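Reading a protein record of the kind used here takes only a little practice. The record below shows the convention in full.

——
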Amino acid sequence: MSITKPGERKLQILQALAGMLENPKGEKITTAALAAKIDVSEATLYRHFASKAQMFEGLIEFIETTIFGLINQISQQHKDGIQQVHSISLMLLSFAERNPGMTRVLIGDALVNEDERLQARMNQIMDRIELAYKQALRQAGVQGQIAEAEVAIRANLLTSFVLGRWQRYAKTGFKASPTESAPAQITILL
């Protein structure tokens, strides 16, 4: 019997859940299947998480922390508003490409039969992404790169573009790369 350090098992559970979400068929994930995948009992899962919803919350927290940490870095590294928008867009698409299971959480597919507050939380994340676009586009407006009156419209368009690319990636069984032709498409959108 191997001894795991505190927090390791929790991480192992979340990694296994994310891995199971990479299944292109998108079948409903049960705690029994998740426990079997990492060779533990369901009781072990429930020692670390009170519910399956809490497991998904763990994935959502990872997504949120990662994405907004990277958006903050981009905002600090690039003072040019249009460059910020390009970098944020490519980061969001690359994140999905590197994390197919997380993409199913981002688009809400993995949350369909789960607690509705999880989808509400993902909707808040999408609102925050749109807000990040607005901030970068306001910067571009101040810099004379775009009309300031277009900030909200462009932010919504870019958010919809990213969401659409994520959706297509998941719906094609992770075959249609979200980053393919993305730099040129983002340039056209701007």
